[in-house]
Amino acid sequence: MAPPQRSDDPKALAINPPQSSGRLAESNKFCAPAILCDIFSVKFKNTVPYLLTAGSVLPISLGMDEEASPRRRRKRSSRIDASVWLEAALQQLADGGIDQVRIEPLAAQLGITKGAFYKRYANRDELLAAMLDYWFEESTASVIATYADVDEPPPERLERILLTPFRRADFRERARMEMAIRLWAHHDIRAAETMRRVDAQRLRYMEQVLRGNGFEAKDAASRAFLIYAYILTEGTMSDAPRDGLRDRCRALLRSPQPD
């Protein structure tokens, strides 16, 4: 059977698919080496594109609506960004502790299969390691880098740090996640090492900011610790009004050391 002839006439191209060749359908040898194939697809409004081969015309999904292509929709959803996996895992951790971080519930929560998980992580242990790396970067390294990129006077930079608990809408939720990691660190070496890095880098940055505000090295170290403790505590306490207490605390933390 000769290959279909090309035509510039849209009406000729937007044809109803002819019946498949019984001989080719039975042998399932479309485009075999012995057969010369002419393959092309076209799409016009209200028409379905077809894949034309020697002896058969097969409908293809190129350009079809999302509802008409659930396989493509599933494939796209399985390629979600790593941060989505990690944020969902951290939420599991905050809700129920490290034992609640499980692959099957995690995949179900994200609406994808376990197979999609294993395309990204070899096993649960690799996921846990990725969670710790992500937390260090997201909660510490990138935050400090963002602060450092802002060109502002030293007093304003210090005030920015003191207002950290009140400027991020999800601060309390992030504090819940961090508390869960700290509890995990009591019996996991990797988690403990991650939190040591987190604490050390945050304190070091706060000391630098305080030195920029005129504090001596020793005073800067102790003041940085107090500020850090204040910020961590704010993440775990209720947000009930305290009659200006927070304002007075910030004023004390930023004020010069008395003689």
UniProtKB/TrEMBL annotation:
Residues 1-23 are annotated as: Disordered. The keyword DNA-binding applies. It holds the Pfam family TetR_N. Keywords: DNA-binding, Transcription, Transcription regulation. The keyword Transcription applies. GO terms for molecular function: DNA-binding transcription factor activity; transcription cis-regulatory region binding. Residues 102-121 bind DNA. This is HTH tetR-type domain-containing protein. It comes from Sphingopyxis lindanitolerans. The lineage of its organism: Bacteria, Pseudomonadati, Pseudomonadota, Alphaproteobacteria, Sphingomonadales.
